[in-house]
Write a structure and sequence with these properties.
homodimer, 36% helix, 13 strands, FMN (chains A, B), TIM Barrel, 16 helices
Chain lengths: 467, 467
């Protein structure tokens, strides 16, 4: 039996404080260098030397200004503001690497699909097929106000928009140019055979796009499609579209169930059960000895900012203003806060317990602190028992978190046959995930219908989001 | 008296055939490599070694499909299709250079200002202040149809939109963050002083944008503002906004007049007469001997595609279908073509003469072919008599055109004191154009009003475009 190998992406964001708030102040942390090109080129070279699949870039297009009724906490903490565009660091990282993949987050809600399609095709060309796209539908109220809206678009409607957005993208990426359209025939002075390129003439509820796509076909055509799910609408959407799903869960059972739900949904959409890979955010703190691990836990833990976490969580009350022994659920009911906050706080949790939990390094099931053997044991359990395929490595310190993983955990995983020894030369990101010859979306993925030019004339049935 | 030095940008586009159609087939031309990252990194290193000010990237966001009622000619010729996003090659070029500037074309008509503001600030950070923006308002009918419109937005309305677009950008770039907002105070755990960052709360006729800007202040804040003018609306717009104007003219007199008109307009907007630099597109073919020049003229000339030019020019008739001796103006009147075509063809020009002219290397006043001495004589005349400040070097061959200029013309210009000998370490693109200490827009530029937070609350008077 071949052992399942771990896929590893570094979880990054083009900002000071992404998800481990407060740690930017550590003197060895490089996060304050995010505005500098050499931060990104050094990081890319480190990750490629360590055999990472990809660097995965989160993004938001607004500010967290719900907590304490303003952006002050986010600004003070450097919490996802300032933050720069994530796409623009990819070409620089691509210029100094040959194999590392790049996942980039982009929202379907506020920017036109034609321009985005071209940007992703450009990245796929420049990287020779090393890009993936994390599909999101924006959730910050401030993001809506940055793009002309008064309020956020309703959740299910955001998915309707996203579904049509992808329909447009697929027509451009998969249907507008044939594989053999570009002939580069110097003798007859023909760069492209015009009979193999076409308008898409998309007319839908939200978009009207003529085409043709401006880019010739790239290695992957459609970038690898990543998505985080949770809601019924999100699961329906992922069933049709996603190739890599970010999942999670608080227990072995919930994780297995979440994965099975998604596989069933993919099958319902005519796809193979293993056409989706499952990735979780993992927090890993390691060291050569237990003492070194304990030192790191202490050093990181004492810097964590609970205020940063409350602002990130968009909490409409400041728990620091309440007595530690009060029960959070009572505050939520008394202040008439949205019921979703009741899901986040266990019924009996006190303010003190909640603050301690939010200020803790341990953010749930996929947390492990220990020597490389302990970490590798746990990772094997995640792979074999929980059924995940890979991790987004949460960074406490850059570059220390990635370097520790590469220097300590990777050799141990390799000894156990759980981590690749080298990249396959010239492979695309999709091939790295799904195997040689799989550079493009498989034939049973929804998008592949547009490889038949006739399909461009037949509107696809939009997904229904009744959930 | 100090001699005026020449500013030089390479005129580029992320495509096969930009403005010298047909020449991509030459065996020594590298244009077919535009999809590859190393095309751009090699080019950038060549230009920096030659002391160029910048590489200047043109762009369109649609296809030329008027000529022969379809995109076939453009596709066959590789004429600006396929074409990739221009912004995304900049970070790769920045990663392998330290001084070279980057000008990028972006249209204000179809994409939201908030996202564009962030992308340009990101580029300004990554390049440490080496970026400029060529402001355009899109003119291809197909571009409109790629972004949900049935027809192009009316010309003067495009400028109204652009004027408000820049108002939004200036508020984000100049007004949203104070210079000293980012404190990086590790001891007190403060990355940004929240009292020095603000919402912009822009509400106008076309845009509604809350802010704050997501990026901290970059070296230049506002990128260097480039614009091509011609129409009365364009001149009015440039008077308020532009720092570098692409100009031209068919004679010494028209060039001087165009420059003077622009300087007067800048003064009418409260700016200094020399607050605008003037750049023309120049065609330069050079060689070590007259014979070498003649060989290049012949080799390039016989490859030029007149069909590519007709498609580029969006000509609604195919002149190749008419007798060579027929007068073009008569065809234009008979076929009831737009009167603007009458401006392009002299009253008596025959079809044969027009085809020869469109298929000629010599595209007007700023064309010179000769040994370096001949070229340098002509450049000195452009600088001193015509009053220009720089050129966008038109490429016949990449990299041959740039390499010839660097190896042959630059040494001759340096001997004459007409070309800088070295870059100033750490200077921004704006400082290179306007002098040390001028990294940001000057205090009498319209945008500078937003450095006073109170100005964000007082709507600026929009420009009037009655022309």
């Amino acid at each position: 039996m071949t052992l399942k190998k771990l896929h590893v992406n570094l979880f990054e964001m083009n900002c000071v404080s992404h998800i481990t708030h407060g740690l930017w102040v550590h003197p060895d942390n490089n996060r304050h260098r995010f505005n500098d090109l050499d931060y990104w080129t050094e990081l890319a070279q480190l990750l490629e030397a360590g055999g990472f699949d990809a660097v995965f870039l989160a993004d938001v297009i607004g500010t967290y200004d719900v907590f304490r009724n303003g952006p002050e906490t986010a600004l003070r903490e450097g919490m996802q503001i300032p933050s720069n565009d994530p796409m623009l660091v990819i070409p620089a990282m691509a210029a100094v690497t040959r194999h590392l993949g790049f996942g980039v987050t982009f929202s379907t809600t506020y920017e036109p699909p034609f321009a985005f399609a071209r940007r992703m095709s450009t990245l796929d060309h420049l990287t020779k097929g090393r890009v993936g796209w994390n599909i999101v539908t924006s959730y910050l109220p401030n993001a809506a106000r940055n793009f002309g809206h008064d309020d956020e678009v309703r959740h299910d409607q955001r998915y309707e928009i996203a579904d049509e957005y992808l329909d447009v993208l697929y027509k451009l990426w998969e249907g507008s140019w044939d594989d053999d359209a570009v002939v580069q025939d110097r003798e007859n002075r023909v760069y492209t055979d015009p009979t193999k390129v076409r308008y898409i003439d998309h007319v839908g509820d939200y978009y009207k796009v003529a085409g043709p796509h401006l880019c010739q076909p790239s290695r992957q055509r459609t970038p690898v499609l990543f998505q985080a799910t949770g809601s019924p609408a999100g699961i329906e959407f992922a069933g049709r579209h996603a190739e890599v799903v970010f999942t999670g869960g608080k227990s072995h059972e919930t994780i297995r169930r979440n994965i099975q739900t998604m596989r069933d949904k993919a099958v319902a959409h005519g796809r193979e059960p293993d056409s989706i890979k499952f990735v979780v955010m993992a927090s890993i703190i390691t060291g050569r000895t237990d003492e070194e691990v304990a030192q790191k836990l202490h050093a990181y833990g004492q810097l964590l900012s609970v205020e940063g976490s409350m602002a990130h969580f968009q909490l409409p009350v400041d728990l620091l203003a309440y007595p530690r022994e009060e029960v959070v659920a009572n505050i939520i009911r008394r202040e008439r806060l949205a019921s979703l906050f009741l899901d986040y706080f266990p019924p009996d949790e006190t303010v003190g317990q909640a603050l301690d939990r939010m200020g803790s390094l341990d953010q749930g099931y996929f947390f492990v602190a220990g020597t490389p053997q302990v970490v590798a044991d746990r990772i094997e359990q995640w792979l074999d028992e929980d059924g995940i395929d890979g991790i987004n490595l949460r960074q406490f310190m850059s570059f220390e978190t990635a370097r520790d993983f590469i220097e300590l955990v990777v050799p141990e995983l390799r000894r156990r046959g759980r981590y690749r020894h080298a990249y396959e030369p010239g492979e695309t990101l999709r091939e790295r995930l799904f195997g040689a010859g799989q550079a493009k979306l498989p034939g049973n993925h929804f998008a592949s219908r547009y490889r038949d030019p006739q399909a461009l004339k037949q509107p696809a049935a939009p997904l229904r989001f009744d959930g």
